[in-house]
Design the sequence.
């Protein structure tokens, strides 16, 4: 194999680019679009559903927890992010609504965190521990059954079944890191073959998953009256997210945006709700009439830009604080 071919096989700038896209998509799941056309809002949210599974897949793909020492290092990093992020939201809740004593006494808080999107971090902890002690020590076929079983049981019990208990759903959702971490680690072993595949096949896989995800959501709405805006995971999501990840492997995208995806996607994921609150407060207080509606229609790019600029400024001028907020204790690469 030539040096150019070897470098191409090791190039993961496509993943970094898709990290940036996924961070943008996550913001799109949570902003308030006001009275923007419902079909357009649904399309934006359906598009964004790949993001969280994608981040799990990336973690599995770059899995390097091969010793007890490495395990504790990873758990320490995740624990640092969980602690700092929850302290930030504790301070925010305290300033905004008073000390959240009742919330701290709720078991659900310790599964999802003080902001609902932080469930991803606790799920990562559970997934890392499971994969280290069990997932990578049992027969791969058995692990495939476990991984697919976890996902299927969650979808059947908590997506298709509308009468579920919320706490049970949150516990089940915390297990969803396991199938994606495992899938990401398996994909890593076939990266050369994947990069030799025709792009159109991977694109068709991704589009097929996106269509299946939308179709399932529409069926649930027609069948049980469930709003498609609130569906986080269905069977189509699994295919869609996997297709997006496979596409990221065959794209070579060096440049500033890929670098931003690598260095800033975590910050955007963790702290974009604060930008949403800031943006909403400013628009509500300072803008009225039709212009206010137009501002909310554009809330996705505006909130994303606010969070991105904040991340860039912190990384540039307060690198130590930026590192702490991201669970790292050294400055980020510029």
Sequence:
């Amino acid at each position: 194999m030539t040096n150019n071919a070897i470098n191409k096989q090791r190039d993961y700038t496509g993943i970094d680019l898709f990290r940036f896209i996924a961070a943008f998509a996550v913001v799109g799941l949570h902003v308030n679009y006001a009275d923007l056309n419902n079909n357009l809002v649904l399309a934006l949210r359906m598009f964004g559903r790949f993001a969280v599974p994608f981040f799990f897949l990336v973690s599995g793909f770059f899995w390097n927890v091969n010793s007890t020492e490495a395990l504790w290092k990873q758990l320490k990093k995740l624990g640092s992010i969980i602690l700092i992020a929850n302290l930030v939201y504790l301070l925010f809740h305290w300033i905004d609504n008073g000390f959240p004593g009742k919330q701290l006494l709720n078991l659900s808080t310790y599964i999802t965190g003080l902001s609902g999107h932080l469930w991803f971090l606790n799920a990562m902890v559970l997934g890392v521990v499971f994969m280290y002690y069990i997932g990578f020590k049992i027969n791969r076929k058995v692990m495939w059954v476990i991984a697919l079983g976890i996902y299927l049981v969650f979808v059947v019990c908590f997506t298709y079944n509308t009468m579920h208990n919320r706490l049970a759903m949150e516990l089940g959702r915390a297990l969803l890191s396991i199938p994606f971490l495992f899938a990401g680690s398996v994909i890593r072993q076939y990266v050369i073959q994947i990069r030799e595949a025709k792009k159109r096949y991977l694109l068709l896989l991704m589009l097929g998953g996106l269509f299946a995800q939308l179709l399932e959501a529409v069926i649930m709405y027609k069948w049980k009256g469930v709003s498609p805006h609130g569906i986080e995971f269905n069977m189509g999501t699994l295919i869609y997210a996997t297709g997006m990840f496979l596409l990221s492997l065959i794209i070579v995208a060096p440049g500033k945006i890929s670098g931003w995806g690598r260095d800033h996607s975590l910050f955007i994921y963790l702290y974009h709700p604060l930008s949403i609150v800031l943006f909403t407060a400013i628009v509500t207080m300072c803008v009225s009439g039709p212009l206010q509606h137009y501002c909310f229609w554009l809330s996705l790019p505006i909130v994303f830009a606010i969070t991105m600029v904040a991340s860039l400024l912190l990384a540039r001028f307060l690198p130590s604080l930026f590192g702490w907020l991201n669970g790292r204790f050294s400055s980020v690469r510029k």
